[in-house]
Amino acid sequence: MKMEKAILAVITLNKEKIDGGAPIFLCDTQEEMEKVAANLEAILDGISHALSDQLYIIVKH
Amino acid sequence: MNEYTYPILFGVVVGTMARLVMLRTDYRQYPTYLHGKVIHISLGFIAASLGTVAVPAIMEKEFTAVTFLTIAASQFREVRNMERNTLTELDAYELVPRGNTYIEGIAVAFEGRNYLVIFTSFIATLTYLVWNVWIAILASLVCYLIIRKFMSGATLKKLVDIEHHELHFEGAGLYVDNIYIMNIGLPKRQEEILKYGMGFILTPKNFNVRSTIANLGQRQAILHDASVSLGVFRDSGTPALVPLIKRDLDDGRIGVFILPQDKDIDKAKRIIGAVPVLENAIRMPSESKANKKGDDNE
């Protein structure tokens, strides 16, 4: 089976809400989270999507 | 030299010229310079010869000779494969790919044009032999006119109304008018998109058009053509900056989001309007019998 989309990484401020398979990056501030997300986006060649203010995911399309 | 020399010469020249007329390098940049052209002119010459020689063959009662036209047919099917393969290979390295539907359309056009050349040569030689050179010239001119008409298919501006709309974000969602395009997380990316992006709404003029512009291949063709003509603000490694088209399920309008380097609204409208309607995307639901009868009792 060919995977069309996959969550490559999760970046969050709120550890309690996260569990499971993808690598999780914990951040302390909003700025830090955006920086990490921007870097990961470039490195992983995926798009960072915001699920909420405290939760970004990097998705490979 | 015999009685057929000049008619054959005439037919071949007319046919090859017909191929030249149909071989334009335009914004699609295809075929590219010289080498690509040489291939197609040579094939056009072969097609012209085949069409021409068929006439004397029939006149000499060599009917079996006509079977070589079938060889021509398989030969030109090969042209279609060749074009398809080349373009598919190249498509992987385009910033905004053409898409398979567009490629197939181009490949079919290349095959079809060779058959047009055969017909042109056939008619030119036939009229030359039956009547004289002047009538043959006249017939060739008529053929050219018909070819020109065949060549230019419909463009999008006949099917849709194009309107410019500003892009806006609701939370992380990017919208053109009320059509949701995608989710962009990073505020920095959002700024870039608002700065460089442009949004257009294409409203279908009738019911048939709805399914035509909903075709994913047709949508990709719009994005490709717009990106070729206006430039594209994108690079490998920036997957968030991707031109997209999404559809409004309620009324069949489509929202076009592009990232042009040249932000000229009128030009962009003209370019979107000039996108060819792909043969393979055309749907005619109004032609179906179920739609025409209008009652279920029959």
Keywords for this entry:
heterodimer, A: alpha+beta, four-stranded mixed sheet, globular, B: 298 residues, alpha+beta, 2 domains, four-stranded antiparallel sheet, three-stranded antiparallel sheet, YpzH (chain A)
Question: What would you say this structure looks like, in words?
Answer:
The complex is a heterodimer of chains A (61) and B (298). Chain A has one domain (6-60). In chain A, strand 3 (47-52) and strand 4 form a beta hairpin. By secondary structure, chain A is of the alpha+beta class. Chain A contains one helix and four strands; from the N terminus they run ββαββ. Chain A has a four-stranded mixed sheet with strand order 2-1-4-3, with helices on one face. Chain A has one helix at 30-44, and strands at 6-12, 24-26, 47-52, 55-60. In chain A, 25% of the residues lie in helices and 36% in strands. Chain B has 298 residues and is of the alpha+beta class. Chain B has two domains: 5-152, no CATH class; 157-284. Chain B has helices spanning 5-22, 34-59, 68-91, 100-130, 133-151, 187-196, 207-214, 216-230, 265-273, 289-293, and strands spanning 160-165, 167-170, 173-176, 179-183, 198-204, 244-247, 254-258. In chain B, strand 3 and strand 4 (179-183) form a beta hairpin. The longest helix of chain B has 31 residues, at 100-130. The model of chain B has no long low-confidence stretch (mean pLDDT 86). Chains A and B meet through helix 1 and strand 3 of A and helix 6 of B.
